[in-house]
From TrEMBL:
It comes from Vaccinium darrowii. The lineage of its organism: Eukaryota, Viridiplantae, Streptophyta, Embryophyta, Tracheophyta. It comes from the Eukaryota. This is Uncharacterized protein.
Length: 151
């Protein structure tokens, strides 16, 4: 079967090697990826603000009960689930194209040490999974104090 377009192939040295980003270069755990197809994964955006990390995953047609968001190994955020195909494969049908993905998907991200893991919030609405990971207050943010003149 000929493949059209680029295939996502992790390579050593990539910041997305094995689909985990290790921004602090502290070493990655040994991961088991059996049963997860590299072409069948959720596309995720990760945005950081002063107060939190925000993850947005495109999961069209996926139900809330088919998605699992968890923190593993201390600080690995995992988003996983199952895409169900509603159509039945009828042997009399002639398919011209089948591009929508179905089956298991999984994404894993190493969270920074300043993450408040007990306060993670997420919601799935209109095929968009939003995960908010608040940040702990740092010494630098406490130093941003303003002196008040005493009269």
């Amino acid at each position: 079967m000929a493949m059209v377009g680029p295939k996502r192939v992790p390579w050593f040295g990539s910041p997305f090697f094995a689909d985990i980003w290790d921004p602090f270069e502290i070493g990655l755990p040994d991961l088991n990826w059996e049963g997860v197809d590299d072409d069948n994964r959720a596309d995720v955006d990760w945005r950081e603000t002063d107060k939190a990390h925000f993850f947005h995953a495109d999961l069209p047609g996926v139900k809330k009960e088919d998605v699992k968001v968890q923190v593993e190994d201390g600080n690995i955020l995992q988003i996983s689930g199952e895409r169900q195909r509603k159509e039945k494969d009828d042997t009399d049908d002639k398919w011209h194209r089948a591009e929508r993905q179905s089956g298991s998907f999984s994404r894993r991200f190493q969270l920074p040490e300043n993450s408040k893991l007990d306060e993670i919030m997420c919601r799935l609405e209109n095929g968009l999974l939003s995960v908010m990971v608040p940040k702990k207050e740092t010494e630098e943010s406490r130093k941003n104090a303003r002196n008040v003149e005493v009269a």
